[in-house]
Design goal:
By secondary structure, this protein is an alpha/beta fold. About 40% of the residues lie in helices and about 15% in strands. The chain is built from 14 helices and 10 strands. Strands 1, 2, 3, 4, 5, 6, 7, 8, 9 and 10 form a 10-stranded mixed beta sheet that branches. Strand 1, helix 2 and strand 2 form a beta-alpha-beta unit.
Length: about 350
């Protein structure tokens, strides 16, 4: 971790209260800070795999990378507070909702890149070129094979059926992954039908948990039989223990396909080095795509890049994916929060 990143981790709570006057402290980027302008600075809410990817980018291009880890919302506030004086060239984050909020707040500038457009499918990037999905994560159904047959599982909507009463574990409503899944239900079904589904989940006495890791642990220990998590959390468990007693089933394969979210980035509106920001994002979408996604067991956003062996062998790649535009469900984030509050989903 860079000096800059360590300093941010130690002081994050204090900085959150003084964002209006906070400034990016000097520190070492990968390979050391540079005074010649060949440094791109990244504010990132993504913590997995970025250091190795940035180091490889520097090795291949000679462009240094300074990066600041932090909470997504706090980083957005910081960029807004810094205004034209921000040192952020790129804002990187997880979840389409975070990217959509950033776009709504005017944090990004349009990036015109034939290379990125060719590498990243249209549904995984902002239609105006403000941000680009760089990795893909499926949020799908996981289960205890000792208690549930995969033939019993089919869709997110089916988990509202009373036969699952007392058997479900799900992520809490403040989590962006939950919000995006519910937002996708709104996009596909409309608000009222999505509300009926979420009320069904609540009515099944679903155990609401703070992390996907806790959901997987609860299922493995028999505390619940079925849950919904991002696929890579299960992949991490398999990497440590190939016999971990939880499996997944791809949701909604008979209709729209499993919900796919993104981790992505865009060039900051007031970037000092927008061209270097564009180069970094291009590299992450093309030559650096594998190293960027493999460290977190994600699927590549670039369809020309193969998925890593672990998820290919355990989960496969031949499954139906929901092609709903990330910008569409990302833009419904506020509606999803309101719906879950109305449904009593904690």
């Amino acid at each position: 971790m860079t000096t800059l990143a360590r300093a941010w981790t130690r002081k994050r709570a204090a900085l959150a209260a003084t964002l209006a006057v906070a400034a990016l402290a000097s520190g070492c980027g990968i390979g050391g800070a540079s005074d010649d302008g060949d440094t791109v600075r990244v504010y990132t809410g993504r913590h997995y795999g970025v250091e190795h990817a940035f180091a490889q980018f520097t090795e291949e291009t000679g462009i240094e990378v300074d990066f600041l880890f932090g909470n997504d919302a706090e980083l957005r506030e910081r960029i807004e507070a810094e205004g034209e004086d921000t040192q952020a060239d790129v804002y990187m984050t997880v979840d389409a909702g975070n990217l959509a909020v950033g776009a709504e707040q005017g944090m990004f500038q349009p990036t015109d890149s034939e290379a990125i457009d060719a590498a990243i499918p249209a549904n995984l990037r902002d239609p105006e070129g403000l941000w680009f999905g760089l990795s893909v994560r499926a949020r799908t159904i996981v289960y205890n094979p000792a208690e549930v047959s995969p033939d019993e599982l089919s869709t997110y909507e089916d988990l509202a059926d009373p036969r699952w009463k007392g058997r479900l574990c799900m992520r809490n409503s403040p989590n962006v992954y939950t919000q995006s899944l519910v937002a996708s239900l709104i996009a596909h079904h409309g608000y009222d039908e999505a509300l009926r589904v979420v009320k069904g989940w609540v009515g099944n006495d679903t155990d609401i948990m703070a992390t996907d890791v806790l959901i997987l642990e609860a299922i493995s220990q028999g505390a619940c039989d079925v849950g919904i998590t991002n696929h890579y959390y299960l992949a991490r468990e398999y990497a440590e223990d190939p016999e971990f007693p939880v499996e997944l089933v791809w949701a909604n394969q008979a209709d729209r396909g499993v919900h796919m979210n993104v981790s992505g980035a865009g060039v900051a509106r007031h970037a000092d080095n927008p061209e270097l920001g564009r180069q970094l994002i291009e590299w992450l979408a093309t030559d650096g795509q594998g190293i960027f996604v493999d460290g977190n067991h994600e699927y590549p956003a670039n369809p020309e890049v193969p998925a890593e062996p672990l998820i290919t062998e355990r989960f496969g790649t031949d499954f139906r994916r929901d092609d709903l535009a990330a910008a569409t469900f990302g833009g419904l984030n506020a509606d999803a929060i309101r719906l879950m509050d109305e449904a009593g989903y904690a």
